[in-house]
Write a structure and sequence with these properties.
17 helices, 16% strand, two-stranded antiparallel ribbon, single chain
Length: 470
C-alpha cells in the first residue's frame, strides 16, 4: 500500500540575497543629441534680404520726403552755392521744336569786347569748380564764361515728357493713382488731403481699365549731339563767338564734334587734363544700389572718392557743392546717362589731323602731380596733336585751389600769344521801306532831316497802306 507523504514542510524557503553596502552609482540622464551645424549661408541670406528691403524702402520713400519745390531745394543749399548762383545768369536753350526749353546756368567775369574764353567742364563738375579760374581771367582782361552742362550744377537736370500707361481698375487702380499723386505733389499734400477730406480723394474719372496720359519728368541723359546744340545756342545767345574754348576732362568727348562742325566759331582750344578715355570720376559707383546712396549721403565718403581719383585735396565746400549737385534734381541719373552715351571710340589723332582742326591753335594743360602714368598720358596727347603747346600744373585732374590760378595763367598767356580777335559784325538788313525809295518819290529836306514822300499806296511790313515819312 502506497503511502503519500506531504513534503511542503520539509522544503526550505529561498534565502534572500545579502544586500550590498556599497553606494549605488547615480544614474546620469541621457545627454541630448548635439545640435546640427548651422548653415553659414542662412545669415547672409537674411542679411541680403534685409538690406534689399531697406534699399527698396529708401528708394520709394526718398521722392516723397525730398522737397520737390525748387525754392525749398534752393534754401537747403550751402551759402557758397547760393552766392555763386546769385552772380550767374541763366540762358534758355531749345534742342527740339516739340520740347519745352531748358535753362542753362552760366557764370562769367570780365568786360565785353575782350577775348572770350568759354569753359566746358567734365562730368561730375560744374561752373562752381571753375569760379576762381573765371575770376582770375576777368581780372586779367579776359572775359571768362563757365557753363553748367545740362544735367549738372544749376542747369536743368530733368525734362518734362508725356507718356501713356494702362490704368488699373478697382481698389488697386485707386491705390496706384493716389501713390502717383503723392509722388508728384509731395507727402505733405497727402496729409493735408487726408485731414481735409477724411480720405485720399481721387478724381472721379478713375474707371476700370483705362489709358492714362501723365506728365512725368525724366533725367536729361543727353549725348554729344544734344550737348553741342545747347553749347552753340549759349555761345550765340551771349554773343561770344569766336571763342577760346577750354575743355576739361570728359568735355573733349562731349564737344569734339561741335568743334569740328563749327570750327569758324572757335579761336583756340585748351585741353585741361582731357583725354579720350572717359571721365576722372568713376561713374559706375553711382550705378550700384546702396553704394551710391552711401557715397552721396555722406560728405566724408564722397570727399574720399574725389580725393582718390579727381583732386589732391578738395575743400569741404567744394565737396558739398559737388555732392549736392549730383543729389538734387536727379543729377546722378543725368550724369550717369551722359556717361553711357560718351563716344569712347573717339580717335584723337584723326580729330586733330582733320582739315577743320588743323588751323585752330591748341594748348594742352596737364597735371604733373597725379602719377607718372598720367604725366606720360599727357605727353602722348600733346604729341598726337600737331603743333600743340604743352604745359603742366601742380594740381589734380580737377582744378582746385592754387591749381586753378596756374591753369588760368596758362590760358591768359596762350590767348595773349595769339593775334587779337577781330569780330566781324554783320549788319542787320534794314526793312524794305528804308532801303528802297518807290518810283516817283520826292526827297525834301525840312528841319535839317530828309523826308521821303511816296506817291500812291505803299505797303509796309505791317500791311498798312500809307505814305511813309522818314
Amino acid at each position: 500500500m502506497a503511502i503519500i507523504t506531504d513534503h511542503q514542510d520539509q522544503i526550505d524557503p529561498p534565502k534572500p540575497k545579502p544586500q550590498s553596502h556599497l553606494p549605488k552609482k547615480p544614474i546620469s540622464p541621457k545627454s541630448p543629441p548635439p545640435p546640427p551645424n548651422p548653415n553659414p549661408f542662412t545669415f547672409w541670406f537674411h542679411f541680403t534680404l534685409t538690406v534689399s528691403l531697406l534699399t527698396l524702402l529708401f528708394v520709394l520713400i526718398s521722392p516723397l520726403t525730398t522737397p520737390s519745390d525748387p525754392k525749398s531745394q534752393f534754401l537747403t543749399l550751402p551759402s557758397s552755392l547760393r552766392t555763386h548762383y546769385s552772380k550767374g545768369r541763366v540762358v534758355k536753350v531749345q534742342i527740339n521744336p516739340n520740347e519745352s526749353p531748358i535753362e542753362v546756368f552760366t557764370y562769367s567775369n570780365g568786360r565785353r569786347g575782350s577775348e572770350n574764353v568759354v569753359i566746358v567742364h567734365g562730368l561730375g563738375c560744374s561752373s562752381f569748380t571753375f569760379r576762381d579760374l573765371v575770376d582770375y581771367l576777368g581780372a586779367n582782361g579776359v572775359l571768362g564764361v563757365a557753363i553748367d552742362l545740362p544735367g549738372s550744377g544749376f542747369s536743368d537736370k530733368v525734362v518734362e515728357s508725356e507718356g501713356e500707361r494702362e490704368g488699373f481698375g478697382g481698389v488697386f487702380g485707386k491705390f496706384v493713382d493716389v501713390y502717383d499723386d503723392i509722388r508728384e505733389k509731395g507727402l505733405f499734400w497727402g496729409f493735408d488731403n487726408l485731414i481735409e477730406h477724411g480720405h485720399f480723394s481721387v478724381e472721379e474719372e478713375v474707371k476700370a481699365a483705362r489709358v492714362l496720359t501723365r506728365k512725368r519728368f525724366v533725367a536729361l541723359e543727353w549725348g554729344a549731339e544734344e550737348i553741342g546744340r545747347a553749347l552753340g545756342q549759349v555761345v550765340d545767345s551771349l554773343g561770344l563767338a569766336p571763342v577760346h574754348l577750354v575743355l576739361h576732362d570728359s568735355a573733349l568727348l562731349i564737344s569734339a564734334n561741335w568743334v569740328l562742325e563749327n570750327a569758324g566759331l572757335v579761336r583756340s582750344v585748351t585741353l585741361v587734363d582731357s583725354e579720350p578715355r572717359g571721365a576722372a570720376l568713376p561713374l559706375w559707383v553711382f550705378e550700384v544700389p546702396v553704394v551710391r546712396e552711401v557715397v552721396l549721403g555722406f560728405d566724408f565718403v564722397f570727399g574720399r572718392l574725389i580725393d582718390s581719383c579727381c583732386s589732391k585735396s578738395t575743400e569741404s565746400m567744394d565737396v558739398e557743392a559737388h555732392r549736392t549737385g549730383m543729389k538734387n534734381g536727379d543729377g546722378r541719373r543725368a550724369i550717369v546717362g551722359m556717361g553711357r552715351r560718351l563716344n569712347y571710340s573717339f580717335e584723337l589723332a584723326d580729330w586733330a589731323s582733320s582739315d577743320a582742326i588743323k588751323g585752330i591753335p591748341i594748348q594742352v594743360v596737364w597735371s604733373s602731380g597725379v602719377s607718372e602714368e598720367w604725366s606720360e598720358e599727357g605727353k602722348q596727347v600733346a604729341q598726337v596733336i600737331p603743333g600743340a603747346k604743352s604745359v603742366t600744373h601742380s594740381g589734380g585732374r580737377w582744378p582746385v585751389g592754387d591749381a586753378s590760378l596756374e591753369i588760368a595763367q596758362h590760358i591768359v598767356s596762350f590767348v595773349a600769344s595769339l593775334p587779337k580777335t577781330i569780330k566781324q559784325v554783320e549788319e542787320e538788313p534794314l526793312p524794305d521801306y528804308t532801303q528802297k525809295i518807290p518810283d516817283g518819290a520826292e526827297i525834301e529836306d525840312h528841319h535839317d532831316h530828309p523826308h521821303i514822300h511816296a506817291h500812291g499806296s505803299y505797303m509796309d511790313s505791317y500791311g498798312l497802306g500809307e505814305e511813309w515819312g522818314i
